[in-house]
Every structure is written in structure tokens, then in C-alpha cells.
Design brief:
Layout (H helix, E strand, L loop, with lengths): L3 H8 L21 E10 L3 H15 L6 E4 L3 H11 L10 E8 L7 E6 L12 H10 L6 E10 L1 H6 L5 E6 L2 E7 L4 E8 L2 E8 L2 E6 L11 E2 L5 E4 L4 E5 L1
Parallel strand pairs: 2-3
Antiparallel strand pairs: 1-4, 1-5, 3-5, 6-7, 6-13, 8-9, 9-10, 10-11, 12-13
Helix pairs in contact: 2-3, 2-4
């Protein structure tokens, strides 16, 4: 089996922490929060999307009504599959959010998984459903950036912790800055070996708007919840919400 670090290099995903000074494994966050997220570059294949949603639902075991954010009609299909995948024994009550965005860059398909304790799962830790999905999209070009996120927070944390989310910005020298996610900044410039990466924080969302690398993959991700990660691997810039 390949190592976790080699997996990150192969995946090439915008949500991956990769490069000198970046590590994988434990991710510091709110210990009272529960989250599980699937990130992926995936082909425009209805069966692959259906399998992803079903595997995600079976993992999080929640019948909560999902929020689907999509710039294509595939979002309607995701909603139908989520409803079809509900089961009586699913008792978790956390929120479920799906995001689907068409991409215009030629990147290989792959998925990664993270939760409140692990910024990136090792391939060895994937269950059989996700392993089969990875095998099925291997060597295929991606058409969409897909994210499925489950989040569960206890009442006290949700009551008093909503305004405490921060965006932690790192480059190859370490932590550059910590900024409240609830403040607005249109142009935060982060130095890296290839130049400056531009970050925007607005209305509770963080997004890279300027990238120095060839594909600009990091610009396809949006971070707004604890545990969300955006990385520009070539420029060694890591952005995470804690």
C-alpha cells in the first residue's frame, strides 16, 4: 500500500496539505465537534456520483435534509440520491452539505476523506465502499469538484462557539497569520516560493482568488467550517479553518 504522503502527492487535490513543513494526521479543532468530509475531483458519471453519496450516507448515518450547492443540474440528482439512501436506523442529527462545481482544468480524478481528528485519511483507512470508488475513477479525468460534509456540534458549542472560527494561514516558514472567519478581507497576500497566493475572506467563507501555480486547483475550494482545508501545493501555502 502507498504511504499517506505519497497518496497526497498522487491525489493533487486542492484540499490536501502537501509540501515542506506540511504534515498530515491529527488536526486541531473543536473537540466537541464531529465532522466527516469527502473531497474529490470526479468524472461526470452518474453512477460514480450515486456511489459517493451512498457511501457518504452510510458512513455518517444521518437523515437530515441536505443542503445542495451546485452550478449544474447534477445537484438535483444528488438530492434524489440522498433521499433514496436514507434509512430508518440512521439517527445522527448533524447537518449535511453537498457542493458540486464543474472545473475546466485537466486533473486526474481522486477522492480524499477527512474528519475532526484527521486532516487526511490514509488510503489504508478507507472502507471498502470508498476504496472501490477510488479504484473506479483511477486514470480518469475529472469534470467536477465534489464535496460532501457532515457536521455535528453540541448545543453549548453552537451557542457560544459560532463566532470563534479562525482562518489559520501557513507557508513554508510556519504560521503567517490567524484571522477571524467573520471579518471581511478582499485581498490577503501570502508569500510562497513561486510568488504570492491571494486569499479572500468574506461573509464567513475563505477562498483563494489568485494562484501562482499552473493549474490553479486551489481556487476551486471554499472553506467555511472547522476542519476545512485549502492548499496550494506548489507554492507551499496552507489555509485551514479551526
Amino acid at each position: 500500500m502507498i504511504s499517506r504522503r505519497n497518496f497526497l502527492k498522487i491525489a493533487g487535490l486542492s484540499s490536501v496539505a502537501l509540501g515542506a513543513g506540511f504534515t498530515t494526521g491529527k488536526f486541531i479543532g473543536d473537540k466537541k465537534s464531529v465532522c466527516f468530509t469527502v473531497h474529490g475531483f470526479i468524472p461526470a458519471d452518474d453512477q460514480i456520483i450515486a456511489n459517493l453519496v451512498t457511501a457518504f450516507k452510510n458512513k455518517v448515518k444521518s437523515n437530515s435534509e441536505p443542503v445542495v450547492i451546485s452550478d449544474s443540474k447534477v445537484g438535483e440528482m444528488i438530492n434524489r440520491i440522498d433521499l433514496k439512501s436514507q434509512k430508518e436506523n440512521f439517527t445522527n442529527k448533524g447537518s449535511v452539505t453537498y457542493r458540486l462545481k464543474r472545473i475546466d482544468k485537466q486533473v486526474d480524478s481522486d477522492i480524499i476523506i477527512s474528519d475532526a481528528n484527521n486532516s487526511v485519511y490514509s488510503p489504508d483507512d478507507l472502507n471498502s465502499a470508498f476504496e472501490n470508488i477510488r479504484s473506479g475513477i483511477k486514470n480518469r479525468k475529472a469534470d467536477f469538484l465534489f464535496t460532501a460534509e457532515y457536521k455535528e456540534t453540541d448545543f453549548i458549542t453552537s451557542l457560544f462557539g459560532a463566532d470563534k472560527k479562525e482562518v489559520v494561514i501557513e507557508n513554508e516558514r510556519g504560521i503567517v497569520d490567524k484571522i477571524s472567519l467573520h471579518k471581511n478581507y478582499k485581498n490577503i497576500l501570502i508569500d510562497g516560493p513561486q510568488g504570492k497566493t491571494g486569499l479572500r475572506i468574506e461573509n464567513g467563507f475563505a477562498q483563494v482568488h489568485t494562484s501562482t501555480c499552473k493549474h490553479g486547483i486551489c481556487k476551486h475550494s471554499i472553506a467555511n467550517g472547522v476542519g476545512n482545508i485549502i492548499a496550494c501545493a506548489p507554492n507551499k501555502v496552507l489555509i485551514k479553518v479551526v
